[in-house]
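<goal> How does this chain fold?
<sample>
Here is the protein in question

***
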Amino acid sequence: VGLGGRLDSTNVITPQLSLITNISFDHKDLLGDTLPKIAAEKAGIIKSHVPVVISERQPEVEAVFTERARAMEAPIVFASDHLSLKAAGDGFDVYRDQQVWLTDIRPELRGLYQQKNIPGVLQSVVRLKMMGYRISEEALRTGIANVVSLTGLKGRWQKLSDKPLTICDTGHNPAGIQMVVEQIKATPHRKLYMVFGVVKDKDLNDVFGLLPTDADYYFCQANIPRAMDAYDLAAKAGAAGLRGVVERDVNKALRRANEAAGPEDLIFIGGSTFVVAELENL
């Protein structure tokens, strides 16, 4: 869905199955300022007698989903109760109820957060097959291995170029930023350059505490009314110990980062879906 769930326009559909990924803080002005409140909005997509898969069992919110499912008489399963991924070479092995189920799964989406998303997808496939859908292992592997080329999905730990390695990602809430920072740390590089912009309704207190302090930042803004002014962002970031310069235009900011970076450096573009969407070579 687009935003939340209960009041999202896509919620007019009665699906064959619903899937809800892990819950984290985002859009608190609209969805609520606690995880249970946000989960309640997400749970609004659970329909009467329609099976629902929850990707991750989170103690803070699991009761929200189980109670909603009970009220709607909807079969519910938490994917993390049954499925887990273990890194194996360039891919993953999938364990189902602690037994190896699928080996050498290689997702085209390379973000670390796929370790949380893929179990939900696979559990959904298990449920659909129980409902009579015919989905072969080959089709499953092909879908995961080619999800970008099949769907056109972009901006999910997407490599734009080498030397310097240039990556963009649309992660924009604290949970997403944390995963991005972990992946940056795991990516070999000499110096880090961050092209970074956010929307003005974003609570930045938690985000700033996650961002690398040893990076050079180029603060920018997407060309939309919701974008936080790049100078305001730079001032707030500076107060949090992040150093950088302002270049409002996203692509100009990237060009400046490219001019400063060496071949062994890493350039990251993110902070907002809208910033990534404006990249010319996406």
About this structure: DSSP finds eleven helices and twelve strands in the chain. The first strand starts at residue 18 and ends at 20. The longest helix spans residues 114-130. The mean pLDDT is 91.
